[in-house]
């Protein structure tokens, strides 16, 4: 059939995966069209994810930090919080970044078609145009013909079936809207997103309960790292319910009543002023008409791809949250570059040895590669070395010496294969461990690298020095 627009590269979805793919495609000389339903570029990450959460977490961390100073003889008193202004600050941060992306798209001559895309065959996509914020349809459909496509339609919040509609029950997007600060808040799901948002609300004055089906909060990093975070954060919680299921949620006039099931769970329904549902995210694979293009989608909605990010249809690629875990922005961006380059005919492929994870809580927890738990489960022989921040001049000077830095080495090759850091700014430092793993460094390489003193980053060098002493076959 006919088409309203034609392009060499069609990118569906303008999150970190989609805009990176579109920009790289355009830079490589392909005529590129980017389809996005919402008014701004940036997807979940910029609009309702990574960036707004960090804008709020930064303010929370400063409030908490200032409170620590009281022990040093510096008192600021109780903070006065204007929640409207704080929300405005968050919006301003988003605006700066999405505005920047719009400028970059324009500079590269990436055309944006604003609407909901649905594939109609392997070379055509229909776009139902949207208005304003992107939530409403214009009742106008255009068809784009493409030679190649990159699917970057991301993921969405998992909704629990038994949860009613009520303004006092929110998902992460609702929590980021920061409408009010509740007295008593429940976080359903003790993962990173729930704990980050819980941190913000708790610092602003809420008392927290958290309920988690698994036997620990923050799945992913080793328990020794999480333990430090938990000890420093216990004061925020009235009740941490592990191995516990949420079985019923009822909205009453005086609050949201939640029923739990678990050994240590309260028998009576508990009352909350705000409930945050942070029970995971699901891929959008089933909502884009992939079947019309012949693209395979799994039962759960993921799109399987090979190392070149190709789907089963050779000229259609997929990247980001929609292709699988970990659902992280930095993974999406790297996959995006591979997809665009392969589509352009280059021999690129996605071969990251490791993808780091960070909980931007206070203290932060950052980890990458092999964990001790994983090594144990898989029977891999490792050596580890730990540098406690109680011996770090900078951490002590900062009054924040609760953290530690851990490196994990392959017992045979002595190469670094994993690492974890808990402490302030851990997320900013884990990149060095990622580089060390990608480059196949051993303890000597890191230990003999001169790190600036006194810094928190020095702790990575120190951890390597500790291991260096214990390695047998070093030159
Ligand atoms: P998305 O960002 O989900 O973008 C997909 C885009 O496609 C969306 O804009 C959507 O509107 C559009 N779209 C989908 N279907 C269609 C269609 N049919 N037609 C038109 N447009 C469509 N990750 C980190 O790395 N660090 C963090 O600190 C972090 N914090 C987070 C905090 C929160 C609260 C949340 C929810 C997530 C966070 N994440 C974080 C995860 C991160 O946001 C995602 O991994 C990332 O956004 C995935 O990028 P993506 O390009 O795959 O998809």
Automatic annotation (TrEMBL):
It is an enzyme of class 1 (oxidoreductase). Binds 1 FAD per subunit. Keywords: Disulfide bond, FAD, Flavoprotein, Lipoyl, NAD, Nucleotide-binding, Oxidoreductase, Redox-active center. Disulfide bonds join 45-50. One of its GO terms (biological process) is 2-oxoglutarate metabolic process. The active site is at 453 (proton acceptor). It catalyses: N(6)-[(R)-dihydrolipoyl]-L-lysyl-[protein] + NAD(+) = N(6)-[(R)-lipoyl]-L-lysyl-[protein] + NADH + H(+). FAD binds at residues 54, 117, 321, 327-330. GO terms for molecular function: dihydrolipoyl dehydrogenase (NADH) activity; flavin adenine dinucleotide binding. Its EC number is 1.8.1.4. Its cofactor is FAD; (R)-lipoate. NAD(+) binds at residues 189-196, 212, 280. Belongs to the class-I pyridine nucleotide-disulfide oxidoreductase family. The active site is a redox-active disulfide bond. This is Dihydrolipoyl dehydrogenase. The lineage of its organism: Bacteria, Pseudomonadati, Pseudomonadota, Betaproteobacteria, Neisseriales.
